[in-house]
Amino acid sequence: MGNSYPASTSRSAELHQRGLAVIPDGVSRSTVIIRPHPIYIDNGKGAWITDVDGNRYLDCNNNFTSIILGHADPVVEAAVRKQLSRGTAFSMATEAEIELAEILCTRISSCEQVRFCNSGTEAVMGAIKAARAFTGRPAIIKVEGSYHGTYDHAEVSLGPDPSNWGVPDTPSTVPYAQGAPESLADEVVVVQFNDAHGAVEAIRRVGPRLAAVLLDPMPSRVGMPVLDPTFTEAIRKTTREVGALLVLDEVISFRLAYGGAQAVHGIEPDLTVLAKIIGGGFPVGAIGGRSDVMEVFAAVQGDRAAVPSGGTYTANPVTMTAGVACMRELEEPSFDRLDDIGHQIRQGLKVLFEEQSIEWQVTGAGSLFRIHPHQRPIRGYRDAHHDSDEATVMASLQRRLLEREVYFSGYGMGCVNLATSDADIDHLLTAVGEALDLVH
Ligand SMILES: Cc1ncc(COP(=O)(O)O)c(C=O)c1O
Q: Cβ distance 287 to 212 under 8 Å?
């Protein structure tokens, strides 16, 4: 066993105490909380990260799927260093913004134009506002359990449980943050992933008030189920029928293929939301799509656009330069290698479960995988939702993996980067094999 986490005398524990005095929870992201205390990182290189106590971890999270080449990739680093010496942000435009937009429009067939922002949350919010402005309608439909960032409307029904999720055909709209306005229930309608019939019914029902359906084609919190093409085909057909837009959230799924998940599944969205990997490791978001829809962001007919958008650090040249360098590194063979790494991991996990006669399963695609501590067939959120025993076993798996030099999410989601070697894959599978012995 390699690592000493957790240790009450560690530097991470000490930093946590110091952080608690000035930051609620001692950290600014709820998602980095691990009990008994968060891990504070010193550095990362390639597939590995090292904490402030010198513990090393094979990174199976990659900053929530945003790192794709590897930590401290030398090509991105060189490009960013060059830009740093020329200035980091100006109150005027730079060429790097156009370069990154050109790359994205070339790779993503449904995107004729792109507009940048600073995070996926902001991009989802911008896409919803664009859909409302384009259609003149207020409501959206989203999938139960699907994460789209922290905008109130997009956060609805992110974490419902059997006590409040309602009937399967018409799931309840469950606000996420306390204090969210009750009017959300009028503006957000929830459907289940892969439920084509339910989606068609909802789209027709909300029809005249519906601006858009917001869809992540491989939602991690929904369990990374296999997308049923009849679901997306039904949504595409019916949104067109009622004059609503399809907004595809490719914030994570863009890492699945050169042209994103829409290329893999043949989906034709009106708007696409991007973030994470397109910033090469720096904060970013983008909305792309058909130019007639994207025109809502342009001040063509007066002083003000239908949807004014901006932001102090939006399209800053450091992020744009890093994004360009990262995208140029990521050619078709990179995705073949990512598929291969992910395939070896998913297969290896299946073999481990079989060998140890454990009734678990793994879902995912490309560089993404999700471990489920049960064998319920996974079509949507309700199948993947953990009861309290399952949540406990997954937290315990995370702890046992940390001891064995693997950093992996507490709910079963894993993500690897291109720097992951075959030896790293062996390391992961050995660690999981040993950890399963202890947690099961
Ligand atoms: C599918 C999806 N959409 C949107 C977001 C929000 O992106 P950000 O964290 O950059 O705000 C995330 C973040 O994990 C995501 O997974």
A: no
**Cα–ligand 1 centroid distance for 8 (angstroms):** 33
Q: CA-to-CA distance for 53 and 214, rounded, in angstroms?
A: 42
| Interatomic CA distance for residues 119 and 255, integer angstroms | 16
Catalytic residue among 51, 249, 270, 424: 249
**Known catalytic membership, residue 276:** yes
| Residues of each domain in the chain carrying CATH 3.40.640.10 | 74-329
In short, whether 119's Cβ falls inside 6 Å of ligand 1 is yes
**Model pTM score:** 0.98
- At the second CATH level, the architecture of 11-68+331-439 is Alpha-Beta Complex (3.90)
- For residue 147, indicate whether it is catalytic: yes
Quick: pLDDT tens for 32-67.
Answer: 999 999 999 999 999 999 999 999 999 999 999 999
* Ligand 1 in reach of 275 Cβ (< 6 A): yes
Q: Which of 142, 195, 270, 276 is catalytic?
A: 276
